[in-house]
Write a structure and sequence with these properties.
The complex is a heterodimer. By secondary structure, chain A is of the alpha/beta class. Chain A is built from 13 helices and 14 strands. Classes of the chains: A alpha/beta, B mainly alpha.
């Protein structure tokens, strides 16, 4: 009898669980210390700015954002994520910067049927065969920005290139993305340790190869040190540097300064993009934090807006996973990068632009938008994705 | 090709000499006082932060370097008087536990004072460019680091091998009671050695600050390398620390530069690009294992 009662109670509880939640919880795990901290801090600040503009609510419901530092270690990230999933029972997860950490945390998030909104890491694995209904990337697929640089280097007629990238999943994606559109000679592919800060040995190798251009993908403190050491080794005199937007945004420019002028880089967003949402975002960000936003900040901002639109769309019934997935796929918000849509693998189909670093009207060294490289560009892995 | 080898040798020399600054203090404390100091790397980190803070306050790298090194020496003095003096007579396990606790305390204190994000330290303006030597450009700042390292190595040699204080240090290490009986204050001598080691740590941290980044945890990775150096060189031997540092510096630099290229000639490109960097990063540990196999006491054992 009592067993039957318990079963009945359980059934009632389960049936009653698809009602509007009274509060939305977001688990934000990101790299907030160490050389990669600049990226995580910008994503967090962008996310928090969006929360502030939404009056601390997601889809009209009060929201709580729980923040944890992964110290750029997959183990620490996994522990923090498990705590958010199991104990705090968050409705969304976001924040991870590095793809190796994303790949370590992903399985437990998906198993728990929690939606992960990636504001940065876009590993090829989750775009292709391992694509998952619970994974959305609001930024880009890892290869995309590198593909755009590859196209630029190809179009500008460079023939002999050295590639420098860290030895981790994001670095491998960078090389394949770049080579998909650059067809000239690759003199050398240099793989460094993730988090390496001294590039003396690699720079000597580059000098010996005498390339006409160097393509490097070294996010955060790695890129800051690479560019500084590249310039102080005198290599900038006859070698042109190319990078994706990650290695040429405000965090790196602020640290390196004038030596970066004239460097071309690619991005899906730029702070001088001309649309109402972006103007408001850039102005608000500067007012709040006293610095220009980077692409990472724009991604964090968009991640919060994506959640907001989807929660509003399902009228707060975040327990109805199928409906929430549809609402996320529908992308009910206006992005600061202008319009884009989600592909069948939950990665964006969008435009990619060329930026160049120079002085703006007020004499400040920053990025300037040059024009588009790709329009409505999808990633190369979508065909391998059989979304269940 | 010759130019590449020359440049990589300079890089190896620069890296090795900085390792030497750390290993010298570590090997003296370990070899002479028989005290394992895991917090040696923390002194390096705190030294770098002090240099960065002082350089920012004084708006001059050189004043910052001087002030930071002096600050670290004072910190070393306080540590020796309050903690290490109690540890010399304890067993190695107590020393490991106490100094490991120091690492945690140092990391958290630095995080509280300076924040979790790296502090950027810039080299002096005049040294930020390249200079031309033998037909190629080399960063001026790295040459300055090499000069500092060579000067310290020379000074240490004179101090330990030729001076009276050096003689006391060597005597205190080989027979403490006898030295005390001859009227030498060994305790004060050990304090001086410890403070000197702390100052060398801060010098290395301050000099490397502009090349790397001043950040929490920067001491741990370099501490492991410093231990590898003193094990290769022989514990307690300054000469061993110098030779060990140069070997480790050169092998690490050349390994990173040449190994991937060599492997590419032997293996398919895909396998080489995976194996190369992995092998390069374990090369120095292979080297250490090899040397220990043939010379279990290290290259220059202090107590033969």
């Amino acid at each position: 009898m009592s067993l039957r009662l318990t079963a009945l109670a359980a059934a009632l509880l389960l049936a009653g669980s698809v009602h509007a939640a009274d509060k939305i919880k977001v688990g934000f795990v990101s790299t907030l210390s160490g050389p990669g901290a600049g990226l995580g801090v910008d994503i967090r600040d962008g996310f928090n700015l969006a929360m502030k503009s939404l009056n601390g609510k997601l889809g009209g419901l009060p929201a709580e954002v729980l923040i944890a530092d992964d110290q750029q270690s997959p183990d620490t990230a996994k522990q923090a994520a498990d705590k958010f999933l199991k104990r705090d029972k968050v409705d969304f997860m976001t924040g991870i910067v590095f793809s190796n950490i994303m790949l370590a945390v992903g399985p437990s998030v998906f198993e728990n049927k929690t939606f992960y909104i990636s504001a940065n890491a876009g590993p090829s694995q989750y775009a292709g065969e391992q694509c998952n209904p619970f994974f959305f990337n609001v930024a880009w697929q890892n290869d995309n920005l590198h593909e755009a640089v590859g196209k630029t280097v190809q179009d500008k007629g460079f023939k002999n290139v050295v590639i420098v990238t860290p030895n981790y999943p994001g670095g491998k994606d960078a090389v394949s993305g770049f080579k998909r559109f650059y067809k000239g000679h690759v003199a050398e592919e240099v793989y460094t340790k993730l988090g390496q800060l001294d590039y003396a040995a690699e720079l000597a190798q580059i000098r010996a190869q005498k390339p006409d251009a160097v393509f490097f993908f070294l996010p955060g403190g790695m890129g800051i040190n690479f560019v500084k050491q590249f310039v102080s080794a005198g290599l900038s005199r006859d070698t042109q540097l190319f990078a994706p937007g990650f290695s040429a945004d405000e965090d790196v420019i602020k640290a390196v300064g004038a030596p970066m002028m004239g460097m071309f880089n690619s991005s899906h967003w730029a702070h001088d993009m001309d649309n109402a949402e972006n103007k408001r975002f850039v102005a608000d960000f500067q007012k709040e934090y006293g610095r220009l936003p980077s692409l990472y900040a724009s991604q964090g901002y968009d991640a919060a807006l994506l959640m907001d639109g989807a929660v509003r769309d399902v009228k707060g019934k975040v327990e109805d996973k199928a409906a929430l997935q549809k609402a996320l796929e529908a992308k009910r918000f206006k992005s600061v990068r202008g319009d884009f849509k989600f592909n069948s693998n939950h990665y964006p189909v969008q435009n990619y632009y060329l930026r160049v670093i120079g002085k703006d009207a007020s004499g400040r060294v920053t990025n300037k938008m040059m024009g588009s490289i790709f329009t409505n560009h999808a990633d190369a892995y979508v065909a391998q994705c059989k979304m269940k | 090709m010759l130019q590449l080898i020359l440049e990589q040798s300079l890089n190896g020399l620069q890296f090795g000499l900085m390792l030497f600054l750390l290993a010298a203090g570590l090997t003296l404390v370990f070899g002479i006082m028989d005290c394992i100091n895991l917090a040696h790397g923390s002194l390096y980190m705190v030294g770098a932060y002090l240099v960065a803070a002082a350089a920012q306050a004084a708006d001059s790298f050189w004043i910052g370097l001087g002030a930071g090194v002096a600050g670290a020496a004072v910190l070393g003095l306080l540590l020796e008087l309050s903690l290490f003096r109690q540890l010399y007579r304890r067993d190695h396990l107590s020393q490991v536990l106490a100094t490991f606790a120091l690492i945690l305390i140092a990391n958290e204190s630095v995080r509280m004072i300076w924040g979790a994000q790296p502090v950027m330290l810039n080299p002096p303006e005049a040294l930020s460019g390249p200079v031309e030597i033998g037909g190629f450009f080399y960063p001026a700042y790295r040459l300055v680091i090499i000069a500092f390292g060579l000067a310290v190595a020379g000074m240490l040699y004179l101090l330990v091998a030729k001076s009276r204080i050096g003689m006391w240090v060597r005597a205190g290490a080989s027979n403490r009671e006898m030295t005390e009986a001859l009227g030498i204050n060994v305790q004060r001598l050990f304090t001086a050695v410890f403070v000197f080691g702390a100052a060398l740590c801060a010098l290395a941290g301050g000099l490397l600050g502009p090349l790397l980044a001043v950040q929490v945890g920067m001491g741990e990775s370099v501490l492991i390398l410093a231990f590898v150096v003193i094990i290769i060189g022989g514990i307690g031997s300054i000469r061993g620390a110098l030779v060990g540092s140069l070997i480790v510096g050169t092998v690490d630099t050349l390994g990173r530069a040449l190994l991937p290229t060599l492997l590419r000639a032997l293996l398919p490109a895909d396998a080489a690009s995976t194996l190369g960097p992995a092998l390069a990063s374990i090369l120095i540990y292979l080297l250490m294992a090899g040397i220990l196999f043939f010379k279990p006491q290290g290259l220059f054992p202090a107590r033969a």
